[in-house]
Amino acid sequence: SSDLQLQHFVPQLQLVPRPGLPDLIIFVQGSFVAPTGAPHDQTAAGWGIYITDGDYSFCDMVTTDRAQPLWVGATHLSNNTGNLTAMIFALMWVHYNVSNHNVCIAHNSTYAAQCTQGYWAPTDNNSLVATAQHWFRLCQQTVHVSFRQTWANQQNSDWWLQHTAKAAELAKQGANGTHNTAPWMQQGAAHPPATTPLPTIP
């Protein structure tokens, strides 16, 4: 992960769903636990993913230890690093399991979604964002990925809110030490596949 570079995306990357392809929706959430007055070593961040098709769920703690098999670039614990880590493992799941679909990433983090797509340049979390961008580009080679914000104050149906809450609960469980992971996560974290270079903007 640490060798990946931040990218600035170009309009050729298709974010609009393609008619006729099956749809897949993935809910992602981050969580940060910091008891009032607690020292830094007593804080924790987690991530959660819920995939409606197949009823898949994953969660774990965010790790900042490069020696850990699921380290994907986080250097500190926060809600942002939780959301970015959830985004990375969701895109990783898509890369290893899906092709020829419209994939919607349902999130409540403008920061994670905009940084992943390259619309926002991060002031920190550069390694984590570079990893998210890398997996996003990998996915766009075989599926059409779009993003939808699912905050409770938006006009979302009960279905969207229920599944957003499910992902949020998974993220909290991850922050509290629940490990619900899969072997492909270690493979992707340690050896992310290469992507084709993006064209440069004149």
Structure characteristics:
alpha/beta, five-stranded mixed β-sheet, 5 helices, globular
Count all strands and give the number. 5
Q: Tell me about the biggest sheet?
A: 5 strands, mixed
The general outline is globular
Q: Estimate the mean pLDDT confidence.
A: 86
> What is the N-to-C order of secondary-structure elements (H for helix, E for strand)?
EEEHEHHEHH
Distance between the termini: 28 Å
Helix content: 25-40%
Low-confidence stretches are none
Quickly count the helices: 5
Q: What share of the residues does DSSP label as strand, in percent? A: 15-25%
Strand order of the largest sheet: 3-2-1-4-5
* Rg calc: 16 Å
Main structural class: alpha/beta
Summarize the structure.
By secondary structure, this protein is α/β, with parallel strands linked by helices. Helix content is 34%, strand content 18%.
What is this structure's SSE topology?
Blueprint: E1 23-33, E2 44-51, E3 56-61, H1 79-97, E4 102-107, H2 110-117, H3 126-140, E5 144-149, H4 158-175, H5 183-190
Parallel strand pairs: 1-4, 4-5
Antiparallel strand pairs: 1-2, 2-3
Helix pairs in contact: 1-2, 1-3, 2-3
What does this protein structure show overall?
Helix 1 packs across helix 2 (110-117) and helix 2 (110-117) crosses helix 3 (126-140). The chain has 5 helices and 5 strands; from the N terminus they run βββαβααβαα. It starts with 22 loop residues before the first strand and ends in a 12-residue tail after the last helix. The longest helix has 19 residues, at 79-97. It has a 5-stranded mixed beta sheet with strand order 3-2-1-4-5. The protein has 202 residues and is of the alpha/beta class.
